[in-house]
């Protein structure tokens, strides 16, 4: 880590983080920025430059934070955990579809460990506490053209609201923060460590346990079974969610039959 990358952010102590992450690929991988346009954008650039598996990028503030479908993610200074993790997983590119789901499982576990809250997962990438949104996940991939195998590098971006008390008007889903939900201060370093340990556990077991992921998501999400939703994306429709298929894609029972949603997002149906 350079002096510039680790300046600021007094709640992050790199030596403590590295000690907690010993034995994982994330030990020694912290790159910290007081402000940056987008940690995901930077991490993707680093992936193309050959940055190592397990590098991760944390910002105190993002000036152009991104969610899925180019939605803006509000990343106010010192108010949240803004994190991007660079992975070079030993996976076929077709299996990268699992990464948003295991990131959601890791975030659910970490939030519970740190706050005792049970985050809901709104397929495929939103973290909610009750009806209010507290976080989002954005997974992006790049093929490393220098590798003969065309090895995929993936970036898992996460934004989690920690300390916010006020939010911009007009957001699609009412927002919240972990502090608002618990009435207590949520330590960014504590959540970062818990999240990376949980993510490492999920990645380590992915080869042998991926078949169980849909059922695990269904067990902690109120959105993937029996919820009337509007689907936004190429297969826009309205219907009732009917669980995940064996690849982790969402099934929605509509008036015209069962639809399998492979990309896009969902919201509660208004009718």
Description:
- With 271 residues, the chain is α+β, with helices and mostly antiparallel strands.
- Helices cover 27% and strands 28% of the residues.
- The strands form 2 sheets. Strands 1-2-3-7-6-5-4 form a 7-stranded mixed β-sheet, with helices on both faces.
- Helix 4 packs across helix 6 and helix 4 crosses helix 8 (213-220).
- The chain is globular and about 55 Å long.
- The N and C termini lie far apart (52 Å).
Fold topology:
Layout: H1 3-6, H2 14-20, E1 30-33, H3 39-48, E2 56-59, E3 80-87, H4 99-115, E4 120-122, E5 126-129, E6 132-143, E7 152-161, H5 178-182, H6 188-204, H7 206-209, H8 213-220, E8 225-232, E9 237-244, E10 250-254, E11 257-261, E12 265-268
Parallel strand pairs: 1-2
Antiparallel strand pairs: 2-3, 3-7, 4-5, 5-6, 6-7, 8-9, 8-12, 9-10, 10-11
What are the key terms here?
7-stranded mixed β-sheet; SH3 type barrels; 271 residues; globular; disordered N terminus; BirA Bifunctional Protein, domain 2; 5-stranded antiparallel β-sheet; alpha+beta; 28% strand
């Amino acid at each position: 880590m350079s002096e510039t990358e680790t300046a600021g952010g007094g709640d992050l102590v790199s030596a403590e983080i590295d000690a907690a992450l010993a034995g994982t690929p994330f030990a020694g991988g912290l790159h910290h920025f007081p402000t940056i346009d987008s940690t995901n954008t930077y991490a993707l650039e680093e992936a193309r430059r050959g940055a190592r598996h397990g590098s991760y990028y944390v910002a105190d503030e993002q000036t152009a934070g991104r969610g899925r479908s180019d939605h803006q993610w509000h990343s106010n200074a010192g108010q949240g955990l803004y994190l991007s993790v660079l992975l070079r997983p030993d996976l076929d590119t077709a299996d990268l579809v699992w990464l948003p789901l295991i990131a959601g499982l890791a975030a659910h576990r970490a939030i519970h460990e740190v706050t005792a809250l049970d985050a809901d997962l709104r397929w495929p990438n939103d973290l909610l506490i009750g009806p209010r949104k507290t976080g989002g996940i954005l997974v992006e991939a790049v093929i490393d053209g220098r590798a003969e195998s065309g090895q995929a590098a993936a970036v898992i971006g996460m934004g989690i609201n920690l300390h916010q008390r006020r939010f911009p008007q007009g957001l699609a889903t009412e927002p919240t923060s972990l502090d608002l939900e618990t009435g207590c201060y949520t330590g960014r370093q504590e959540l970062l460590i818990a999240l990376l340990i949980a993510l490492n556990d999920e990645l380590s077991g992915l080869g042998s346990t991926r078949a169980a992921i849909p059922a695990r998501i269904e067990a902690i999400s109120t959105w993937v079974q029996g919820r009337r939703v509007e689907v936004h994306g190429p297969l826009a429709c309205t219907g009732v969610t009917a669980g995940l298929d064996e690849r982790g894609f969402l099934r929605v029972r509509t008036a015209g039959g069962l639809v399998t949603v492979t990309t896009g997002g969902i919201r509660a149906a208004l009718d």
